[in-house]
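Support request from a user on the community tier.

User writes: "When I paste my structure tokens into the form, the page sometimes reloads and wipes my input. The last time it worked, I copied everything first. Here is what I submitted, just in case something in the input itself triggers the reload:"
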């Protein structure tokens, strides 16, 4: 019998809460592991049904669906159980220091956000010369009763598994990009990370200089609108770059997921949705009226769509092809 992987140890020497890394999702959620005293994490009332037990899904089946699209992602999740506990998924050594990554996945109903990635907390052990990054993925399969999904999967168990796999695939892309950005050079190079870097490089090509500058100008305005007034110009420029990479990250993650699960890709929809998210991340309307802030967010959406369309054209001209496992259909 295959031995169950042990959750990663929780004892650490120190927490480093000063990470400058970009975070996706809300940081104030309760990320403790689910337990039997809180059944609302797994049970939901549905009309004419006593209760719905979310635990009907099979982890092995969810992982199998993901493996068909990305072996690198499957290897990331192979030893992770979806119980909210942290599992060590990667360790590399560079010089005297060891760098490790812990990942937790939790499936539960919470509002109307399909999923979110909370990461990374950095734990430093001077004694063991080890730095551990911890990420948590929350998966919310609330779209179980979506008409298109129901017509595709009449079997409820298969529908739950497909939806969890699709959401988890999207969120794992963020984790894998983060791995590539944080781990010592070369250690985080997966197919997904390298694809993302190609898209990011394409977005800064000379042919797209006008579109790029338009987007950066709109982000700059939004950052100024949300500034407290005490930030240095260098800090504001860092925020612009972080938000810009966040937007390209979301384009890549959405497009990769949609292609893997045979859904239509829509730059207009992605640009509109994430322009507003970026506007909020920039700080909101601290320095201006809400009307001015909303108008600038709409301008960012328009500029972003033009850039996204340009990226697709540039990648096509480069002969770019999406990388999937040979098992993917």
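"...and here is what came back when it finally went through:"
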């Amino acid at each position: 019998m295959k031995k169950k992987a042990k959750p990663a140890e929780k004892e650490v020497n120190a927490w480093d809460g000063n990470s400058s890394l970009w975070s996706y999702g809300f940081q104030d959620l309760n990320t403790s592991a689910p337990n039997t005293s809180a059944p609302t994490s797994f049970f939901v009332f549905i009309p004419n049904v006593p209760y719905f037990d979310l635990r009907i899904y099979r982890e092995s089946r969810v992982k199998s669906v993901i493996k068909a699209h990305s072996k690198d992602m499957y290897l990331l999740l192979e030893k992770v159980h979806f119980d909210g506990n942290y599992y060590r998924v990667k360790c590399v050594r560079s010089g005297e220091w060891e760098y490790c990554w812990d990942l937790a996945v939790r499936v539960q109903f919470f509002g109307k956000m399909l999923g979110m990635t909370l990461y990374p907390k950095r734990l430093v052990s001077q004694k063991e010369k080890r730095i551990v990054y911890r990420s948590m993925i929350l998966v919310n399969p609330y779209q179980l009763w979506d008409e298109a999904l129901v017509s595709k999967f009449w079997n409820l168990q298969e529908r739950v598994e497909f939806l969890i796999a699709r959401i988890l695939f999207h969120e794992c892309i963020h984790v894998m990009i983060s791995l590539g950005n944080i781990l010592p050079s070369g250690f985080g190079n997966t197919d997904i990370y390298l694809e993302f870097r190609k898209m990011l490089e394409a977005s800064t090509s000379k042919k797209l200089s006008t579109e790029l500058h338009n987007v950066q100008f709109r982000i700059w305005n939004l950052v100024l609108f949300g500034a407290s007034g005490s930030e240095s110009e260098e800090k504001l420029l860092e925020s612009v770059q972080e938000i810009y990479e966040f937007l390209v990250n979301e384009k890549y993650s959405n497009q990769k997921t949609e292609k893997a699960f045979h859904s239509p890709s829509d730059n207009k929809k992605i640009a509109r949705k994430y322009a507003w998210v970026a506007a909020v991340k920039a700080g909101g309307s601290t320095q201006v009226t809400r009307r001015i802030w909303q108008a600038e967010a709409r301008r960012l959406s328009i500029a972003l769509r033009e850039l996204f369309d340009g990226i697709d054209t540039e990648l096509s001209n480069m002969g770019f092809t999406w990388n999937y496992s040979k098992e993917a259909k």
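Agent notes: The reload is a front-end session timeout and is unrelated to the input. Residues 228 and 272 are 26 Å apart (CA to CA). Confidence is low (pLDDT under 50) at residues 1-50. Escalated to web team.
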